[in-house]
Design brief:
single chain; alpha/beta; binds 2-acetamido-2-deoxy-beta-D-glucopyranose; binds zinc ion; Peptidase_M43
Length: 271
């Protein structure tokens, strides 16, 4: 009985599809995106001509854990360096690179589970607004991660800034189909100012001109998925985009427009 109960329980957990808890962008943020969208072509030309130098982001990786076993969230250093390697690989078509500034490890069952973690971040966050703080936790509500969009950097905005990821989404973690480290790639995209590709549905979009329109988050890797049809919406859904919700193995690209937008957002808010 016990065996079959835990088998059913594990299947239920592993059958979970990607969900991201990043909140909706603020009106002010949407307006910034719209403004950038109107001048995108010029900025892209300018970027390629004069600004090709890499932007290197320091990353603090905070391991929250219930105890010192790997099964209690205490993922090894090797899994963290593998996570940074995945991010560097996934961002090669952009100007961003990531270097590990340090790792902290904190045994605190409450911080390990908590979703809204002001006190945890007040204690652990390192660096300035250009520093990416990743918190690995046992996120509830089926969320694999969530992030703060860039914002006007007040003291409290900086204090709360960062990205939470479920520790089992890091490379070699145990969430089947979502354990190649793409959750951190996706969440960092939000941290750099990108929305979900399906953010505003067919008509609203994500304010980036070269991501085809998509209405609904993608599950798995369904070739030919096309939720926005007709002459106004050319192209199938961008199911391979890092800012969709597909399987990790299905996510392979940022578009040039997304690469540009991240630089625009970086300059406006974080640089
Ligand atoms: C993480 O949370 C889930 C559900 O809330 C629970 O079943 C699981 O045992 C937790 N993992 C650890 C390592 O505590
Ligand atoms: Zn997301």
């Amino acid at each position: 009985m016990k065996f079959s109960f835990s088998l059913i329980f594990s299947l239920a957990v592993f059958a979970t599809a990607r969900k991201c808890g990043t909140p909706e962008p603020s009106q002010e943020h949407l307006e910034a995106s719209q403004t950038f969208a109107q001048g995108a072509a010029d900025v892209e030309n300018n970027r390629q001509a004069t600004e090709a130098a890499p932007i290197t982001i320091s990353v603090w990786f905070h391991v929250l854990r219930a105890g010192t076993l790997v099964s209690q969230g205490n993922i090894p250093d090797s899994q963290i360096t593998a996570q940074l390697d995945v991010m560097n690989n996934d961002y090669t078509s952009t100007r961003f690179k990531f270097t590990l500034a340090g790792i902290t490890r904190t045994t605190n069952p409450s911080w390990f589970y908590e979703y809204d973690t002001g006190s945890m971040r007040a204690a652990l966050r390192r660096g300035d607004y250009k520093t990416l703080n990743l918190y690995s936790q046992n996120l509830t509500n089926d969320n694999f991660g969530y992030c703060n969009f860039p914002n006007k950097p007040t003291a409290s905005v900086i204090q709360d800034d960062g990205c939470a990821i479920h520790y089992d989404t890091t490379p070699g973690g145990s969430i089947e189909n979502y354990n190649l480290g793409r959750t951190a790639t996706h969440e960092t995209g939000h941290w750099l100012g990108l929305y979900h590709t399906f953010e505003g549905g067919c008509t609203g979009g994500d304010y980036i001109s070269d991501t085809p329109a998509i209405k609904t988050p993608t599950k798995g890797c369904p070739a030919g998925k096309n939720t926005c049809t007709g002459p106004s919406y050319p192209g199938d859904d961008p199911i391979h985009n890092f800012m969709d919700w597909s399987y990790d193995a299905c996510m392979t690209e940022f578009t040039p427009g997304q690469a540009t937008r991240m630089v625009q957002m970086w300059k406006k808010y974080r640089a």
